Amino acid sequence: MRENKVIYGLIGYGGMGRWHTEILSNVPEIEIGGIYDIKEEKRIEAKEKGFSVYGSEEEMLSDPDIDVVLIATPNDCHKPIAIRAMHAGKNVISEKPVTLSSSDLQEMENVAKETGKFLTVHQNRRWDDDFLIIRKLVEEQKLGHVFRIESRVHGSRGIPGDWRKEKIHGGGMVLDWGVHLLDQILYLYGDRKIETVYASLTHITNQEVDDGFTTILTFEGGTEVLVEVGTNNYISLPRWYVLGEDGTAVIRDWQLNGEIIRKTGITEEKVVPVKTAAGLTKTMAPRREDTIVKEELPHVSGDIADFHRNVAAVIRDGAEPEIKLFQVMRVMKLMEAIFQSAETNQVIDYRQYES
Ligand code: NAD
């Protein structure tokens, strides 16, 4: 620490590494002490941007000024770098997914315990506005008992980049986007156990790793959650669709377009049926206007820099970490169950893993 600032060493200066430097420029409690990337052109780029650059990982790890190593390399490199960093006396933030399996994570956790170092994971989408809106709606029971949540992200360009397409690097969409969406759901329902897991994977543009998936989780207390990632979807379904006994909420896109429709309590004595080609239906007829009310989504806004502020508070003052390893482990085990379900085409009785 220098002048009470927590000093980060950033490893990996690709898309996410650069994004970290932008976010951290607004966090005065933290300073980037230096950057290391395995590629020389990236080190040159970082230097040109005004950062100090290390010639090797060892050089960074032996710098006594570095308090925290922030790892933003491809997924398969997180574990070995994190373990070397903790052995060198550094605290560690790993990008998501922390690693590729729960046994790998257990090894990392053991090293954190042995060395007494702080290990956490950048699950930044807990601060996404769309998620915070849904969390508020659920917690405040705005829709009554929520019996179904659908959380989706859809794109149409296949798997981006290079290493994300390869199994050896921890590619695929379960590990890439799934880890975010599942972390959000488990954070939302932290105290509720999952009872069953079913999943299917897609391989439209890539045979080696999944280029999308759908999973259905059932939670104790009777909520079903669908989580879906698609990369071959030329028409996107809404980002969130939440069904409660008293109403429905939708968030359509990243711009937070959407609304809530709730029942007013006024009942229709006589439903006017709607005419369809094959006959009349009352069940699917639109509601009379006075029986429902349309409301705006609540305004909630997150600040991703809070993740880093929390890390600084953990290091400086022993504050409680926002992203805890037991939560990360729960997501990792759930991703393993998703792969297992997809491979066997079976619904997994998940209660055994949640005891
Ligand atoms: P990228 O390919 O753009 O960048 C990775 C960088 O790491 C490259 O510059 C590469 O040269 C470097 N690198 C590879 N191996 C290295 C090693 N052993 N030592 C040092 N440098 C090494 O990838 P990206 O999109 O920046 O993703 C990096 C990580 O960030 C991944 O784990 C990804 O899942 C994560 N990520 C997180 C978010 C988020 O919102 N939290 C978003 C995007 C990516």
From TrEMBL:
Question: Domain named Gfo/Idh/MocA-like oxidoreductase N-terminal: which ranges?
Answer: 8-121
Enzyme superclass (EC)? oxidoreductase
Q: GFO/IDH/MocA-like oxidoreductase domain spans which residues?
A: 133-249
> Do the record's keywords include Oxidoreductase?
yes
What keywords sit in the KW lines? Answer: Oxidoreductase
Give one Pfam family, short name only. GFO_IDH_MocA
Q: What is its EC number?
A: 1.-.-.-
One example of the protein's molecular function in GO is: nucleotide binding
Keyword Oxidoreductase set for record: yes
PANTHER family linked to this entry: CONSERVED EXPRESSED OXIDOREDUCTASE (EUROFUNG) (PTHR43708), OXIDOREDUCTASE (PTHR43708:SF8)
What is the recorded name of this protein? Answer: Gfo/Idh/MocA family oxidoreductase
